[in-house]
Amino acid sequence: MSKFDQYEGFQVESAKNWTQFHKNKFDTKPFGDHDVEVKIECCGVCASDLHTITGGWGEQMFPLAVGHEIVGKALRVGPKVTLIKEGQRVGVGAQSWSCLECRQCKNDNETYCSKQMDTYGSPWPDTGVVTQGGYSSHVRTHEHWVFPIPDALPSHLAAPMLCAGITSYSPLVRNGAGPGKKVGVVGLGGLGHFAVLFAKALGAETWVISRSHSKEADAKAMGADGYLASQDKDWNREHLTTFDLIISTANSFGDGFDLSAYLALLDVHGRWVSVGLPEEATLNIKPQDLIGNGCLIGASHLGSRREMLDMLRLAADAGIKSWVETVPISADNLAKTMQRLQKNDVRYRFTMTDYDKEFGA
After folding, report:
1. Which of 29, 50, 268, 359 has a C-alpha 20 to 30 A away from that of 347?
2. What pLDDT, in 10s, does the model give residues 308-346?
């Protein structure tokens, strides 16, 4: 019998068998003074989950339950918790801990803390317990990474915002997206669709840049002001040096990806910010491509607690609705959903639901 509390969840036992989900009991970390215990209602499906269980992002600590776009009910709060009340509907994203004492943490940059820990796949200090994610009955998380969900946001639509949403929102607000700014979004997938929705809500002129015209109608339905297809001849000519910011959500930088053509779109000191993390991808950068407009290249990782709360409030106030397909959670449905995700067969996020049928009310 384990000395730790246990939850139940759907785990993958190896990268070789990534389509096989097993319903297992697993240990969870000791309940701390600042912890919140959440009974999970639903969980979004993130490409990170797929990259993890397939081994695309390297070796993992199996068996592992993934999932880090979690919405549920706060069942119990620790004696020192002040940010969450018992019974609240709350969310948990991709990060579940940082030191809260370093320079980064004290400046709303806790996602860049050198000691940060992920919601799943992180060894909990001094216990041997590996954190497990949201394809499970419960999750136990420090209050700093537990977020009240506004009443106006349905759970299945809020869930994908907790990773994909914040990943797109943070670089927009940190780089000045708003009225009078022209923002480009490279790639219209799970991340890209949030970048479009939030850029528009922030008041920016918003353009989608994709390979073909196949998603143009969707982009316009999301509110995009314009659409560029890189397969078209001279696709960037009329927009050279006119963009203030480009958010790249691209899932591939393979043959045919001409970074210089994208950077040429940027105004003087305009910014290219990558948020997508393709497997084994390399951005080939020529210094000469930076000289013409003095453009800046960077990246962004998730977002702070402050940004998460602001994003959820904006989504509620502006009536932003994630484009979501719901799927009842089960071992079989998780396998099918992951295989569809691998084929990019989704518009534009999945949320696993009906947790009460698998884990009880």
Report:
1. 359
2. 999 999 999 999 999 999 999 999 999 999 999 999 999
